[in-house]
Amino acid sequence: MAKLDLDTCMDIFDWFDDNTFEYINHIMLSKVDGEARVKGAMPEIRKRARWLLKLHRGTDGAYPEQLLNQPA
After folding, report:
1. pLDDT 10s digit of each residue in the chain, 72 long?
2. For 38, phi and psi rounded to 5 degrees?
């Protein structure tokens, strides 16, 4: 799987109604250095998004992975 960017990770968190979505939004909006904090945490953010994809793959509520990384 190609590298996930923040927007895609946030979409995945939102799709699964994961609390990580609200947590990252809180950090981005309430901390002066929010962007830097999120940028530094991107490896763990990607790891969590991939875990959610893997956990729900093949279920009725699975994220539509075929739409990931399509050319514009």
Report:
1. 567 999 999 999 999 999 999 999 999 999 999 999 999 999 999 999 999 999 999 999 999 988 776 666
2. -65, -40
Nearest residue to 26 (alpha-carbon basis) of 46, 10, 43, 50: 10
Assign 8 to helix, strand or coil.
Answer: helix
Within 1-72, residue ranges assigned H as helices are 6-15, 19-30, 34-40, 42-56
CA dist 20 and 24 (Å) reads 6
Sign of CA dihedral 38, 41, 43, 46: negative
